[in-house]
Each structure stands twice: as C-alpha cells, then as structure tokens.
Design a protein that fits this description.
- With 442 residues, this protein is of the alpha/beta class.
- It has helices at residues 10-21, 33-40, 51-58, 69-74, 96-109, 128-139, 162-167, 179-189, 197-200, 206-235, 242-250, 271-284, 292-314, 338-348, 361-367, 377-380, 401-407, 422-427; strands at residues 2-6, 25-29, 63-66, 78-81, 114-120, 146-152, 172-176, 201-204, 319-323, 352-356, 372-373, 386-389, 412-415, 431-433.
- Bound molecules: uridine-5'-diphosphate-xylopyranose (2 copies).
- Residues 6-12, 30-32, 35, 82-85, 97, 100-101, 122-123, 269-270 line the site of one uridine-5'-diphosphate-xylopyranose.
Length: 442
C-alpha cells in the first residue's frame, strides 16, 4: 500500500519505518525542514532502539522523507496523522497541530479522486473524529470525485521497546464507522497479527477507540500512582518493605506483576498529559471525574517526596551524582521525567549535581550548565556525598560498589528504582535508601 505519515516524532517515525519494512511505500512528512533534511541523511532527532537500522535499510527504497504534503497524499491510499497533542496550560489537549494537519489534508483532498483513508494515531480527546472530519470536508469542498473515511487507530507504543511493540502488537485498536475502511486497515496490519488475527483486532467506533486509548493509559498510570502511594505509606511504618509487599501482592494473578514497580514518579509524553486531558474534557462535557485529578497529584507528590527524602537525609548544599535522567530507559525522551523536578529542587537547595545518562542530549538542552554532565558513570560520582539512581538503565544494574566507595566522599545511596539489594549495598558501608524500602531480612 502507499502510505503518508504526517509528523515524524516518536510515533510517526516508528510507524512509518515499520510499515516501509513490510514492503509498503511510505512518505514521512514533517513541517520541520531540518528534521527532514537530517532524516534524508539518516540522522535521527530521536533515539529509539533498532529504529536507525530500519531507516538505513529502507530509505529511498520504500521509505521517503519529504516536506511535500501534497505529493505524498496524492500518491497514498492511507494518511496517518501522528503529530503531537501537547497539554495546554489548563491541562486540556491542544489540538492546534491536529487541526492544522486536517486543514492541510482537506486542501489536498480538493484535487484527489478514488478512495482514501485518514487515520488518527495521535492521542486525542474523545470527539476529535468529528472535529477532523468537519475540517476535512469543509476544506475539500465535499469533492465528489473522492470518497474518504476516518479511522481512529491510537498508538500503543511504549518508548524504548516501540519497534518490538509495533511489530508484535498484543492488540490493534481500530475505530471506524466504515466497513470498507476496516477491511483496508485489516489488510494493512494482517502480517502483524498472523498468529491470532481474530482476537488481536479490537474493533469499535471512532468514539470507542479514542476513549479506550485514554482509559488504557489512565489504568496503567493509576497502578503506578497507587504503588508509589503504598511506598510512601511503607516509609511511615515501623518496618514494612515495599519490595516484599510488591511481590506478595503481585503473585495474586488478578493483580499481576506489570506496572507495579515503585519509582520516582511516572513521566513521559503520555500518562501525565492524557490524564489531565481527560479531566479537562470531562469537565467540558459537564462531568467532574473524582479519581483522575488525584492520580496526577499523587504522582507529582511522589517526585517532590523523592527530592525531599534526599534533602531530609543529607541536608542542603551537598554534592551528589545522579544516574539516569530520561523518564525511562532506552530512550532520550525527557518529557515530564521525574529527574527534572528532583534536580530543580536540589538546585534550589544549593546542591552541586553531576550526572550520567547514556542518552543525555535532550537533558543538556533542559539543564544547560546548571549541572555537570559526564560521559561515564563512575567519573560522575567522584567526590560526591551520595549517588541517586533515577532511571533503571541496564548499565546501572550491577555497579561496582567497592569502586563507588573509593571514588565518593560520602556513603549515601538513593536507589529510587529499587534495583539494588539493600543488604549488599550496606555491606560496603553505605547507607541505603530506596522507595518504601525498610531493610528486609534477605
Ligand atoms: C505522539 C502522539 O502523536 C501524541 O498524541 C501521543 O500522545 C504521544 O506520542 P510524538 O510522536 O511523541 O507524539 O510527537 P512529537 O515528538 O511531538 O512529534 C511530532 C512531529 O510532528 C514533530 O516532528 C513535528 O515537527 C511534526 N509536526 C507537527 C508536523 O509535521 N506538522 C504539524 O503541523 C505539527
Ligand atoms: C505509555 C504506554 O505504556 C503506551 O502503551 C502508550 O501508548 C504510550 O504511553 P511510555 O510512556 O512510552 O508508554 O512508557 P511506559 O513504559 O508506559 O512508562 C511510563 C512511565 O511509567 C515511565 O516513567 C516509567 O518509569 C513509569 N513506570 C512504569 C513506573 O514508574 N513503574 C512501573 O512499574 C512501570
């Protein structure tokens, strides 16, 4: 099939690259000329494992990068909208990019014929299908030479493992009112669900798909917020250990192990934004949700709580090293990362901070010279009072605690992903602090 992808961010670039790898012809369009020029030289503005290899393999064979929306759409059967939907100040989804892309599609549709499908992959408030359809119909002046249909096909990519998520999806959500569009979408995704195509397509209306996506992210965020609340509760008991509790709890198959890891608070471009967007949209629809605001507040509290924990143990004006800055491992994405809030709070308290993150390019744009960036995890900890683990990159899994002790001035370890065994860390004469950890017996 011939496909246009509009927006080459985390979602669009992965979607386009994988579709081209499955022998479709894909035109990736972005309004940012520099991004397109760089992509044409295989220089990526984002990091995602395995993505660059896919682009090198397919570029100019079935994968093209262009700013020419007109030509791309005219040559395509399907047009994917993958532009960002950031939060406005009041938390509502800002749909300006979606609307401007819809205008652009409508403009090109004036001169098209045959059958085309417009797919929205961006996360949007429920009802966006109507907004987009109205704009396209108005702009294209109801061109009778062209039949077009709308599909909502929300992304379900977790950054860091997005290429494998996309290639072997556990579900493909398709929301459409058109059986003709549904057949084309099933054909497009057929090779992704060969094993179990009957069960993996989740089909409903555009309204169902839009809300299902928001529900999915809210459900996952709620689990993490709850686990982190329990970690705070455990901290205020006389010996309950969150990691032990987690394992006791998760062996209940109704609960399970996934998304139950205490952390410095969830971040990323989805959970924080989607929850606030859902609250705001519900209010517009004259419904005041009860749980949702609390989930967001609880998560922001966790970020503050983590910083306060360091301050309460060490006091102000210390020198610390931070390992890991991104909101999760295997990405360079810093959006809403807990590290931003934690670092800013420590800086306000006179801290001298050195950091190491394997992919710190975007962090450098945020912090500039306020903190010291190192290329090596052990050089970052020289003469520090404490090491603080914020992101669980694999290369932090088994550090050399003996070497750490030699390099550091102080003896404090803050393991805010609960990756290390307190007993082992303490055996090197460190003082260990985790998230809700209370020195278990093991
Ligand atoms: C995606 C989704 O689309 C968003 O709704 C979801 O909630 C999170 O993931 P992401 O891929 O992370 O967003 O977006 P971003 O990294 O902001 O990239 C968007 C791209 O679209 C940028 O490269 C931007 O230049 C481009 N763009 C934006 C256009 O080409 N045209 C526009 O009008 C606006
Ligand atoms: C999420 C959804 O998982 C994905 O399906 C959706 O389409 C986009 O949003 P993403 O934000 O990329 O993906 O990463 P995810 O793995 O969901 O992690 C989000 C945040 O939760 C990270 O900050 C992570 O560290 C945190 N997290 C995750 C925890 O704190 N504890 C956990 O147990 C799991």
């Amino acid at each position: 099939m011939n496909i246009t992808i509009i927006g080459t961010g985390y979602v669009g670039l992965i979607t386009g690259s994988i579709f081209s790898d499955r022998s479709n012809t894909v035109y990736c369009v972005d309004s940012n000329q520099t991004i397109i020029e760089n992509l044409n030289q295989c220089k990526l503005h984002i990091y995602e494992p395995r993505l660059k290899e896919l682009i090198i393999k397919n570029k100019d064979k079935g994968l093209f990068f262009t700013t020419n929306l007109n030509k791309a759409i005219k040559n395509s059967d399907i047009v994917f909208m993958c532009v960002g939907t950031p939060s406005d100040e009041d938390g509502s989804f800002n749909l300006k990019y979606i609307k401007s892309v819809a205008e652009g599609i409508g403009e090109v549709f004036k001169e098209c014929n045959g059958f085309k499908i417009v797919v929205c992959k961006s996360t949007v408030p429920q009802g966006t299908h109507k907004v987009v359809s109205d704009i396209i119909n108005k702009k294209s002046k109801e061109n009778h030479q062209l039949e077009w249909e709308y599909v909502s096909n929300p992304e379900t990519l977790a950054e860091g493992s997005a290429v494998s998520n996309f290639s072997s999806p556990d579900r493909i959500i398709i929301g459409t009112n058109s059986s003709k569009a549904l057949e084309v979408m099933k054909q497009l995704y057929h090779s992704f669900v060969l094993k179990d195509s009957e069960n993996r397509f989740k089909i409903g209306s555009p309204a169902d798909a839009e809300l299902a996506k928001l529900y999915s992210n809210t459900a996952l965020a709620t689990r993490i917020a709850m686990v982190n609340e329990f970690a705070r509760i455990a901290d205020h008991t006389d010996g309950a250990d969150m990691d032990t509790i987690r394992r006791m709890l998760c062996s209940d198959s109704r609960i399970g192990y996934k998304f139950m890891y205490p952390s410095p608070g969830y971040g990323g471009s989805c959970f924080p934004k989607d929850i606030l967007g859902l609250v705001s949209q519900s209010k517009l629809n004259e419904y005041q949700p009860l749980l949702l605001n609390t989930i967001d507040k609880s998560n922001e509290l966790q970020k503050d709580y983590i910083a306060s924990k360091v301050l309460s143990v060490l006091g102000p004006g210390k020198k610390v090293a931070i390992w890991g800055l991104t909101f999760k491992p295997n990405t360079d994405d810093m959006r809403e990362s807990a590290s931003i809030k934690v670092i800013n709070k420590l800086l306000e308290n006179g801290y001298n901070i050195s950091v190491y993150d394997p992919k710190d390019n975007k962090a450098k744009e945020i912090f500039k010279d306020k903190i010291i960036f190192h290329n090596q995890k052990y050089s970052a900890i020289e003469n520090t009072d404490a090491v603080i683990l914020l992101t669980e990159w694999r290369q932090f899994d088994s550090p050399d605690f003996k070497l750490m002790k030699e390099k550091m001035n102080g003896n404090y370890i803050f393991d805010f992903r609960n990756r290390w065994l307190p007993k082992i860390v303490n055996s090197y004469n460190f003082n260990y602090y985790g998230v809700g950890r209370n020195y278990p017996l093991e």
